[in-house]
Amino acid sequence: MLSRLTPYLLVLPLISFIVVFTYIPIAASLNLSFREWDFLSPTMPFVGLENYRLLFSSHEFWNALRVTVIFAVISVPIRLGLALLIASYLVREALPARVLRGALFLPSVTSTVSIAVVFSWLFATDYGMVNAFLQTLGLGKVPWLQDPQLALWVLVIVNTWKQLGYDIVIYIAGLQAIPQELYDAAAVDGGGKARVFRRVTVPLVMPTTYFLLVVSVIEAFQIFTVVDVMTQGGPAGATDMLVNMLYRVGFTLFDIGQGSALAVVLFALLIALALFKARVLGRRVHYEA
């Protein structure tokens, strides 16, 4: 009897951790989304769907959703495209390639706050190094973080620089799993590098691409720290993301009900996106070479 229970006892701590820190908070957020609470009131009156009605009638919510979607649509393809190209070069075992792997991976394990502060200095209008370089070329100062048309692109650059190393390492692992015989056969058939990359590498690395696509989209929709440090959602809401709005509503305005409603909507949106990607892209993913 004990031998049958042993596997379950071994995973019990992990299951308990997941239940306490994942499923219970999800259930609590769902419950709070139907109530009105401000952290201090001893009562939490039930208000039904009122929080969702206020949320969906808010221009602030639709702007944050639009900006978040635009950010994800821009940043994710850039990240994955650059990562695959760089990984295709760094997959070799030469010493310079191994050194570059470590250098490129370093930002992904560096404090996000530190990265955001450094890039805030780099893109500062009056004393930033980027504008100082532009002035040496005879160009004027650019208000990178104050221009609604440019601020979002700066965040894309920072987020790409931060996450690129992780994507490269995962792609390298996927590339190393491709049998060398396939490349040898393609070379015998006279395939050029570009053609081999398009017809051999890209299809066979699709499982890795699919994994990184799911992770990258979730990360893009949950971006918070870089925005909070560099732009605080400005200028004029041009970089206001869903999680920044959630933080502002829940922990600045102390409207826990509406903040929880936004969290539930974001959770449902990510689940829907994951199911959509599984349905559309899952059939194109081949797990055997």
TrEMBL record:
BP term (GO), one: transmembrane transport
Transmembrane segments: 7-28, 64-91, 103-124, 150-173, 204-225, 245-276
Name recorded for this polypeptide: Sugar ABC transporter permease
Organism listed in the record: Stappia taiwanensis
Family: Belongs to the binding-protein-dependent transport system permease family.
Compartments where found: Cell membrane
Family annotation (CDD domains): TM_PBP2
Gene Ontology CC: plasma membrane
Main location: membrane
Entries under InterPro entries matching the protein: ABC_transporter_permease, MetI-like, MetI-like_sf
Residue ranges annotated for the ABC transmembrane type-1 domain, each copy included: 61-277
Key words, A-Z: Cell membrane, Membrane, Transmembrane, Transmembrane helix, Transport
Annotated membrane topology: Multi-pass membrane protein
